[in-house]
Amino acid sequence: MSLRHLVVISSLIACQAPTEPAATPPVEPPAPTPPPAPVVQTPFERDLAPKLAGCLGCHSADSQNGLDLTDLWASVDEPSSQIEMALIASGDHLQSYLWHKVAGTHSIAGGLGQRMPVGSTWSQDDIDLLARWINLGVPR
Ligand code: HEC
Question: Most buried residue among 13, 65, 78, 102 by CB atoms closer than 10 A?
Answer without folding.
Answer: 102
